[in-house]
Design goal:
With about 575 residues, the chain is mainly beta. It is built from 3 helices and 44 strands. The chain has a 10-stranded parallel β-sheet. An 8-stranded parallel barrel has the order 13-15-18-21-24-22-19-16. Strands 29-32-27-34-35 form a 5-stranded antiparallel β-sheet, with no helix packed on it. A hairpin with a 2-residue loop joins strand 4 (about 50-55) and strand 5. The longest helix has 11 residues, at about 25-35. It is elongated and about 90 Å long.
Length: about 575
């Protein structure tokens, strides 16, 4: 089968069938072998597909017969289990943009030739998501030195391609062979997993290319009869070719028998990459004047677990159970992902907080979850959500990537029907922990020490060790507010103030602690200076204020201690 040139382990080009390597020759070969063409949708070829069901989702089973499936402009190929166990191949050949490959599981150790997915399209976008190519391949059916590969982007391709939630393992001639982006188009890998791919797992080149939330490494896995040899076990997790500066973020790599986890440069030309965050074990090889900039957020202890949402079996991919379903997973047709917090049978409360790249987040009844308005919260911009759960299930739906999850309590966390790996969070883009806590339901908590206090709630301003003064102002729904010695706070009459109706208080604090007690809800807090703010023993989320009922800022300032200011 014709293909663009592959690369040997030393970085030099190795061409197979060079006289037949033009895109036109490839198209001609593919046209002759095509068994399925699309006309506004996907149709199964008679005699080639049957129907199966898993996890409540139907999918078609396609038996490999050496056929080519063409995916044209605006078309979607989805929910298919491709059976490779008879030793034959199937090629998914993408020739049109605004197209999608989704929920595809390749089952069985591949023993055929060529690549499984090949992309040669014009300008536009292509999405490949929730694909399982994790059973590996041998070189038994391919005469080319490197054997078959998983994914190939052609030199003439101009499309911008996103691979999301893909599992590619054990392919001798590259996992994702995408370095032709040096000549056009781009590639973005989001939360993909690769292991033991010969030559390279993630191979790319252009300044528009990115590897985000991905994992790749090599180990001693034996994928079965016929597998093994230098190509299979000595691939680079990442290989950056000449083209532009590739971005790598929140990704984790480790070398194996091959001595480098990242290689930049090929054929005497430099490659460039910026590795912003994640982890790496092994050497970074910079050839021919290549540059790889490694940020301070990159550790030497990579997390090599499979990223959330990546399918771990052909059936999980084909059924859409691992996150790539084209239809609504729950209550909202336009939201593709679910996150569940499960505490069924638990007596202790769980507080949880999570954040996504871009909103909205919507509560859901997915998998029988309850929507409890009094114990579920979303931010105004729809990027953050929180809840409290006791003996039950909460679910949420959203459409973009998770960047942070915190679970305080016994509840389990499930993303797209797969257990969530909480150790991966927070990711770059998360806004931190300041907003966590200080939720409406916290007003009902039994706070430690409440039996010794006259009031239900405390608010503390802490500036211990600070030389600069802090002026603070806060307001509650209904008074009174009283100064307190809670947690060793000082009561300084000359530097504290309470309104006549007992709903507002203010103070000035230098190198110390002030505390106040009250019974109703906070509606406004302003802190001018270095002091921290703590409500009921938890950090206060100041950007939540003011809230409905606050009387504004006019009363803030002009306090007795301001008369002594310079």
């Amino acid at each position: 089968m014709a293909r663009d040139s592959a690369a040997t382990d030393d970085g030099n080009e190795a061409v197979n069938n060079a006289s037949d390597a033009s895109s036109e020759a490839v198209r001609t070969r593919f046209d002759r072998r095509s068994y399925l063409k699309f006309a506004g949708g996907v149709a199964a070829a008679s005699g080639f597909a049957s129907t199966a069901s898993a996890a409540g989702e139907d999918y078609d089973v396609i038996t490999a017969r050496g056929q080519t499936i063409r995916i044209g402009q605006g078309e979607t190929f989805e929910n298919k289990l491709i059976d490779l166990t008879n030793g034959n191949s199937v090629l998914l050949y993408v020739t049109g943009t605004n197209s999608t490959i989704r929920n595809i599981g390749f089952e069985g150790l591949h023993r055929g030739d060529g690549f499984m997915i090949s992309i040669d399209a014009g300008y536009g976008d292509i999405l490949v998501e929730n694909v399982y190519l994790g059973d590996g391949s041998t070189k038994e059916g391919e005469s080319f030195v490197h054997g078959p590969g998983a994914v190939f982007m052609h030199r003439n391709n101009s499309a911008d391609v996103t691979f999301r939630h893909c599992n590619v393992q054990g392919w001798p001639n590259n996992g994702f062979y995408c370095s032709n982006t040096a000549h056009g188009g781009s590639v973005r890998f989001e939360h993909c997993f690769g292991k033991n791919n010969g030559v390279t797992t993630f191979r790319c080149a252009s300044a528009d290319d990115a590897i985000v939330g991905c994992v790749a490494y090599n180990d001693d896995t034996d994928y079965g009869r016929g597998y093994g040899g230098y190509s299979e076990t000595n691939g680079r997790p990442v290989w950056v070719w000449n083209g532009g500066t590739v971005t790598i973020r929140d990704s984790h790599f480790a070398d194996g028998p091959y001595p480098s986890a990242i290689v930049a440069g090929a054929n005497g030309s430099p490659g460039r990459a910026t590795f912003e965050s994640g982890g790496i074990r092994g050497n970074i090889r910079r050839t021919s004047g290549s540059t790889v900039t490694v940020g301070s957020a990159v550790s030497s202890d990579p997390d090599l677990s499979i990223p959330d949402g990546v399918p771990t079996s052909p059936e999980a991919a084909a059924s859409g159970g691992s996150g790539g379903s084209s239809t609504a997973r729950g209550d909202h047709e336009d939201l593709r992902h679910t996150y569940e917090f499960v505490a069924e049978g638990e007596d202790e409360p769980t507080d949880y907080y999570f954040e996504i790249e871009d909103g909205p987040i919507e509560p859901s009844t997915y998998n029988g979850a309850a929507i409890e308005d009094d114990y579920m919260w979303t931010s105004d911009d729809g990027t953050r959500a929180a809840g409290r759960l006791v003996d039950g299930r909460h679910a949420w739906e959203f459409d973009t990537l998770l960047v942070d999850v915190t679970v305080e309590g016994p509840a389990g966390a499930i993303v797209d029907d797969v257990q969530s790996n909480l150790d991966r969070y927070p990711l770059p883009g998360a806004t931190g922990d300041e907003w966590k806590g200080d939720m409406p339901w916290h007003a009902d908590d039994d706070v430690d020490g409440a039996d010794e206090r006259e009031f239900e709630h405390t608010y503390e301003f802490v500036a211990e060790g600070e030389d600069e003064p802090t002026d603070y102002y806060f307001e509650i729904e209904d008074g009174p507010i009283e100064p307190s010695t809670y947690n060793g706070a000082a009561i300084e009459d000359d530097c504290t103030w309470v309104s006549d109706d007992g709903t507002r208080a203010a103070g000035r604090l230098v190198d110390g602690r002030h505390a106040w007690e009250f019974d109703t809800l906070l509606v406004d807090v302003t802190v001018e200076g270095p002091a921290g703010a703590i409500v009921d023993d938890k950090q206060s989320y100041l950007s939540r204020y003011p809230r409905a009922g606050a009387t504004g800022d006019e009363w803030k300032g002009d306090m007795p201690w301001h008369d002594a200011d310079d």
